[in-house]
Amino acid sequence: MLDLAPSRYRSQFGFSIMKNFLRTLCFSLVLTICVHAQSVPSPSLSPSPSPGPGTTQTSGRQHVEEVGEGEVIHISANLVSVPVSVINRRGQSVVDLRQQDFRVFEDGAEQTIVHFSNVAQPFSVVLLIDTSGSTAPFIEQIKAAAKAFVEQLRPADTIRPIYFHGEIKPLTENGISDPKLFSAAIDKIEPGPINLGTRLYDAVAFALGTLKPAPPRKAVILITDGENTWGKATMKGTLREAEESDVVFYTLQYGDAPPRKYLQQLADKTGGRYFRGGELNALRQSFVEVAEELRRQYVLGYEPKEPERNGVRTIRVKVNRSHVAVRARRFYTYSH
Fold first, then answer.
1. What number of other Cβ atoms are within 10 A of residue 217's Cβ?
2. What pLDDT was estimated at residue 27?
3. What number of other Cβ atoms are within 10 A of residue 254's Cβ?
4. How far is C-alpha 122 from the geometric centre of its chain's CA atoms?
5. DSSP characters for 52-77?
6. Closest CA to 37 of 250, 303, 313, 263
7. What stretch of H or E contains 22?
8. How many CA atoms lie within 13 A of 315 on its CB side?
């Protein structure tokens, strides 16, 4: 973003941002980058009458293919798989639910769940960091929080750090899981020149393209103040592309600006979470929760009751547990 304010105002503004940044983060995440998070096993295990946490149950036809919101797929045996995150009031993943605790609706009609699993699975994440304009005072804090996130990775998880301002700067060619390599890459992050502005939408489009060849469990963690000043991509276009992908977005807005609808919509439409402001420790904790959410998802499989109809279908998941939030993609595009 362009920084044209007088220096005294910038100083006051920066202090105000820092004050808020070090004071508040109400994070209740719901998925998760890097869909929304990781937990689908092989569906070929034999069914059990009442599976508990860490188990898989599959009945009927045995082929399961995960589907992202808006994603066009060709489904063998008409079996649709829906990753689901369930979070309690403390922002923790709820991992003790059973198949009978879930209900799935497609276009308002309840479906019969024929596959159920709750098994941790590796994930791929793009960490997308805005370093333009007023972000300069927070660069070191953001670097520290990013390094804390990599501590949550397991050997099979990968993360690709990318920063942007008026240019988009990938720090590695591919996703990595080695903490030393990641730390060295993060240390290369630099604030962008003031006169280059912010290409937020282009950065989001770039991240989506980066994750297309990755395995099903993938997410973007986006840290930004939410301002876009120029670029080829558009708000509407990137929201649509995110909806049609199988990528979950976790968006963290820093600074004193009012909540950015774009960041809220990115998270909401993909089944992720939106955070605003916060102190360094809270930011680190939110990364811990994102990693856990990405890893600890339920996967529900059902055979659509209208298997011959192509097109967009809405999905709604309900759970038999009070005081929890349920996150899952809200639609997909069916093609057979």
1. 28
2. 34
3. 25
4. 14
5. -TT-EEE-SS---EE--TT-EEE-GG
6. 250
7. none
8. 33
Q: Which amino acid is located at 309 in the chain?
A: R
Task: Answer whether residue 65 shows pLDDT above 80.
Answer: no
Say if residues 115 and 47 touch (Cβ distance below 8 Å).
no
Per-residue pLDDT, 336: 65
- Pick the closest to residue 244 from 214, 276, 209 (CA basis): 209
In this structure, how many other beta carbons lie within 10 angstroms of the beta carbon of residue 233?
18
- One-letter amino acid at 314 equals T
Amino acid in position 247: V
CATH number for the domain running over 1-336: 3.40.50.410
Q: If you search the block for the tokens 């069916």, which residue do you land on?
A: 334
| pLDDT average, residue stretch 105-118 | 93
**Residues forming beta bridges with residue 169, ordered by sequence position:** 163
Work out the angle at residue 275's Cα, subtended by the Cα atoms of residues 273 and 280, and round it to the nearest 5 degrees: 130
Structure-token pair, residue 279? 């102190």
CA distances from 280 to 11, 18, 20, 21, 184 (A): 20, 10, 11, 8, 20
Report how far residue 178's alpha carbon sits from residue 234's, in angstroms, rounded to the nearest whole number.
34
Q: What is the C-alpha separation between 217 and 125, in angstroms, rounded?
A: 9
CA quadruple 161, 200, 290, 31: dihedral sign: negative
The Cα 32–Cα 129 span in angstroms is 18
The answer, yes or no, to whether residue 81 has pLDDT greater than 50, is: yes
Pairing of strands 113-117, 56-58: antiparallel
How far is residue 334's CA from residue 104's CA, in Å, rounded to a whole number? 16
